[in-house]
Amino acid sequence: MQFALHQTQRAVQLAAGVEAVPLTSAPVQRPADVDRSTSEFFNRLTRAALYAPVDGGGVPAIATTALDSARTMVAATAADPLRLAILPVELPLSVATLGAQEMLRVLYGWQILGSRAPEFIREISEVFLDGPVYLQLEYLKQLRRMQAQVRAVPGDGAAWLELGRYSMKCGMYHQAAAAFTTAAGFSLLRAEALYQRSVANYRSAEYADALRDAVESLALNPDQPRAAYWSWLAAGELGGYPADVPKARRIEMASGCGDTDLRYESVSAQIGLDKTGEGRGLAVFDYDGDGRLDVMVSAAGGCSLFHNNGDGTFTDVSVGSGLDTCVSSFAVAIGDYDGDGKPDVFVTRQGFLEGASVLYRNNGDGTFTDVTAAAGLTGWISTFAASWADYNCDGALDLFVGANLNGLFGRKVGDRLFRNNGDGTFTDVAERAGIVTPWPTIGAAWGDYDNDGFPDLFLSSSFGRSQLFHNNGDGTFTNVSRQAGIDSPCFGSVTFWCDYDGDGYLDLVQYVWCRHEDMLQSLRDGVGPADRALRIYHNNGNGTFTNVNRDLGVTECWGSMSGNAADLNNDGYFDLVLGNGGPQVVRGEPPVILQFDGRRFRNVTFTAGMPRFGKSHGAVIADLTGDGRPHILLGSGGFYPAEPMPVEVYRPIVRLGNYLNVRLVGTKSNRDAIGARLRITAGGRTQHHLVSGGSGFGCLPFEQHIGVGAATTIEALEIDWPSRTRQRIASPPINATIRNTEGEESIAVVRRG
Description:
- Helices cover 28% and strands 26% of the residues.
- Helix 7 packs antiparallel against helix 8 (173-183) and helix 9 packs parallel to helix 11 (225-237).
- By secondary structure, it is of the alpha+beta class.
- The model has no long low-confidence stretch (mean pLDDT 90).
């Protein structure tokens, strides 16, 4: 129905001679067309309805917002006589297509969550509606309206509760606690108000008060898992539950306690990577060509670049780099698009709201230049993740940019596939190549799943069905999602390919974002609701996939926003790192380590020394010091002004097992060797690695870290380059970092030990 309505609307536009042109920049004065006007109308109207009961506006405020929004809608078309002429016909069609889109999303939400879908959708809707308020710095105005309301009607307990919640979003924790104290005086609200106050007290480091409030809230409402979680967090900060807390109110968590030889220490402050901000994407790459891995972190206030000093520490070189002015940045994708040997940077903006992504060319002197317009990459879409790949195997990197959810009532626009023209410019070929999907794209991963030499594309949907596009090798793609068995609906997140079982076929890992209560159940019981855990699709070798996550011991659900795979303990098996959290101030959760032993994954998070609480974006694993110890890096921070957080870095205390780090330099292939496949034979086993940027939100270094366990020699390293040439290196050194250039028989040893 949605497709039919859209085609009818397009026919009306064509009949009137109205062209549908994609936006290339922000529509500053007014919405660019009727579709954007109707979306903005319903966004404003819903926002007014959300806040009117608690800021004193009531029905008059909603009516005023409706009238103002209607004027804006007409203004968007008044400047164009053709659009104004067809408005009486186009407007109903625009409303109908939007309604069909939203209904479809609601139906999928219900299919995934059942009767719990309304609560989940309400919470997510609040975040989307809050977004413009905070981005436009209007939250203090809203706060003053709420304060005026409770002064005018002090007996309105619900208004006091909402004032506390809003104050907490602004980071005003003591003011929030005071508002919750008043709300707790209303008997029907007491349990909820005490729970909320426990969060405010924990956030302001009043851990004893936080524990007391959470315990009392649980006494009033024992079926409140959120209060139980905050009591557990507060008790952890106090060194355990005090004796006066009844045993029935003490919470023990079953998750994260698996046996492991991994032990981590937090070193971000020690090494100079503890910059505080609303961290989003994170990338590890050698930006200046000195042979050492540097770090870049994107955030709301701009991107930060850290230079590796070579002694285990880093220096912030952001100011003057050209990257520091890239505000509202999200994911980071690294790729040498012009083949000059200097890695370039593509940054997406906003994530869930429209913005302009940016391409920065590396000048080779520590600075970067915005070449977005010159490269033909301008656009104004909601983008969470982007990824580089040479999809047509011509030796030049192409770029995929996914179109994500755009706010609550934002329209789904087309994904972008930018073909590299070889002259520093790109052409969007997505539609003609067959990359078309009605679902919002939050994650994208390139991988040659059928070993035909051409990278295929998997799109993880944040709200709907994920899609797998097979590369036909002629510049076009075929949607094979259903026959491949990977299109069941979920709240998808980031995704990547890796060969977890070493059979020579790339398997697919899709992270999933879950409800708060599902995460809490997983943390408490070690098992979450079925079908809501991250998905590991085993490649059957015949074009189909089987979801084997439960067979592999992956049964927990997390609010995964980022993550990647790497061999953390050098035993020759890929382990998984999950960066978790949620936009709500009341939600936090630990980053998770799932260690694989070749048969099953087990959660070893707390045993390994990782924290109990966080909001982790841009999870990346990298051997920062080149000594065989993969570090875990997390770009951390929340959605609201209340939650700036420092970058987190966790370093293994000791190295486990032997290893080999491999750096590839393409000549016929793209310079970064993205898409290359490596086979390593050591200790009687063969491993398979893929050179890629990881999951997109966390950009892995192209250097491949390969653990070989107790093996003391490596028999061979074989490389299948994207150019379809094959290279074999006999007996490469162990416990070393090597560099190999395509077509050269010799290798360079960059570092030993």
